[in-house]
Amino acid sequence: MKTKKIGVLGIGNLLMRDDGFGVRCVGELTRNYVIPDNLDVLDGGTAGIMLSPFIESVEVLYILDSVNLQDTPGAVHRFTDADVQSGDIQTRMSPHQVGLLEILELCKLRGKAPERVEMITVVPKDLTLGLGLSSEVEPKVDEVLVILCDCLLLDGFVLEKKGNTTQCTNSLLLKA
Amino acid sequence: MSEQIVIDPITRIEGHLRIECEVDGGLITGARSIGTMWRGIETVLKGRDPREAWLIAQRICGVCTTVHAMASVRSVENALDLEVPVNAQYIRNMIVGAHCLADNIIHFYILSAVDWVDIASAALKADPKKASALARQLSPWKHNSYQEFKQTQDKLKKLIESGQLGPFSSGYWGHPAMQLDPDVNLVAAVHYFQALEYQRKINKVVTILGSKTPHIQNLAVGGVANPINLDSPATLTMERLYYIKSLMDEVHDFIQQVYMTDVATIAALYPEWCSYGKGNGTYLSVPEMPLDEKGTTFAMPGGYITGGDLTTFRPIKTSHDPFFEDNVKESVKHSFYKGDWTRHPYVSETEPEYHDNSGDKYSWVKAPSFKNQPAEVGPVASVLAMNAANYQPAVKHTGWMLEKIGSINSTKQTMDILPSTMGRHISRAIRAAVVQEVMLDQWDFLVNNIGSGDMTTCNEPHFPKGEQRGVGIHEAPRGTLSHWIVIENGKIRNYQAVVPSTWLAGPRGTNDEPGYYERCLVGNPMADPEKPLEVLRTVHSFDPCMACAVHMINPEGKEFSKVKVL
Q1: Active site residue B14
Q2: CATH code at A155?
Q3: Do the chains contact at A46 and B558, CB–CB below 8 Å?
Q4: A64 is a domain residue
Q5: DSSP output for B176-226
Q6: What range defines the domain where residue A31 resides?
Q7: Are the Cβ atoms of A51 and B214 closer than 8 angstroms?
Q8: Does the CB of A98 have a partner CB in chain B at under 8 Å?
Q9: One of B21, B61, B274, B458 is an active-site residue; which one?
Q10: Does residue A1 lie in a domain region?
Q11: Would you say residue A17 lies in a domain?
Q12: Which of A11, B457, B496, B554 is the most exposed place for a label (fewest CB within 10 A)?
């Protein structure tokens, strides 16, 4: 079966503890799973507009991130394509900042947006400066990866764990 | 009667900056620049291995990741007096150049053009035939056809009719300070979309050489981790090098025929903004693009200028030049840190102590100084220094730009317009043209050096017992960046990053002299305090990046900039 080109994008700042959740997730994903062809995984950091080439290169996009919802820290939420498109999620912050959703708008204007965008998120506990996730959020990395694998299954990808976990060379992506 | 306005936050990216202005009789009479977030990377790095500092430091900022990586490795190399193979210098220089061009293009078109260009006017009032003809008259650029202009206008019309303005939703459309003719607005709008394509092309150079973007992975203290083997497909081969060259060539045309031309056009049509936003005439830049192992010769000069007088130029010659190393200090007199000191970064501390901001201390940003004076860093400083040093690529592109502006608005232009709100955009474009040229040189140097049989890309660092101190200098797109490291027995004892936005957005310093934004806003006009477009123009001209945002998405509040008139 021919699969679509899928992108998994982890975003956040590793130096702000739980804000780096999405980046930790993609680190664990590439470390522990065999990544098939046609699935692109990117640690996007907080790169804003510079992420547009990646976003425009995929047909389906999964975004892993932390989102500040009125919910208990560590709670995992899923936003379907309809949620993302509804405009109910808004980037906070700057007067004209180029946030993730504005980048999606720009990609759309260029006629190059993915046909479907979904988000899997966690509610952060600790956003202070430092490396490593809080104890509430840390166990959610595996949980989110399981959800992601389920989503990818529907897209025709069976993700298999690596037989031998290879050494991750980037110490930042490991548990601090 | 004077009134106070507050804009919070003000940056389009990574925003943690708040500006408070006093306005009297339509003019800004006083300003306070307030960094609203603590940046304490220093505390994370203490006790770590200096070889991994760059991996962490490049996470300081989401946008200028490579610059912090670069300054960080250079600081350790500087402390150890470690030589860097020339192949590594050339590869790093190409990354530095490519990142700079991507950053400059994004800054002008995506982050600041909407301060000057009215997208609604472009969509609804412009004539695509006339606009396209105008663009072709201004530049030989191949993508200025009527079809291209018509398509973009249709796209914008549709967007405006849909009522969801997306990336343009917060522009001040119809503001009285928006003065461009609808056709000029459309020219800029067309190039806005093309800019996205070209920033992507040039960023590919960073990806190929750096293995990944954002956050390059190919650096190492002592060089780069790119193996060079012209026969192996897994390494840096001639094929890849030629691909990089083709990307650089494509972007060359965009820089010269589109970016330079658009900046000249907009500058020519907003002449009054070439006098607003002036600083105090003190400029600091450092040399960039090292050409030898020891960092003693550089392609692009940098140095110190006082009183706005180019004859006072004092070059900073090497990466060890004590003139730079000895004269940088940071003050916390008005910043939320313990104490009231002014210290050298090697012995500077980062111990937060928050008060409400009603007192003397009002910002999380420290106030840096050079020879006990605040200084403007950034493209104006760099372009003035390169001209003072009579560096030919800079002299050539500066001359071209001034002539172009003069030919559009029938005036005679001199370098006096550079230190201003618009002059910062002008200087950034000039510098981009220089960087583009220098980057192509680096490619030639690399290929020639490999051709001579030298494949070395890294020298291994050794950490002796005892203490070493070093500074890593980098002339980043936003200006002079320096990372200061103190190593003790192979571990980091102190680390300070003095970043461009600290020089510019800092609060009052040791002698209560205003910070740079604070100074440059005074005297700016303000047509409508509810829509303080003029403040955004001046502050955005510096390309503020209040590094290291929490980029959190909040589904509850659609909270954008708060403009409060008090």
Answers
A1: yes
A2: 3.40.50.1450
A3: no
A4: yes
A5: TT----HHHHHHHHHHHHHHHHHHHHHHHHHHHHHSSSSS---EETTEE--
A6: 6-173
A7: yes
A8: yes
A9: B61
A10: no
A11: yes
A12: B554
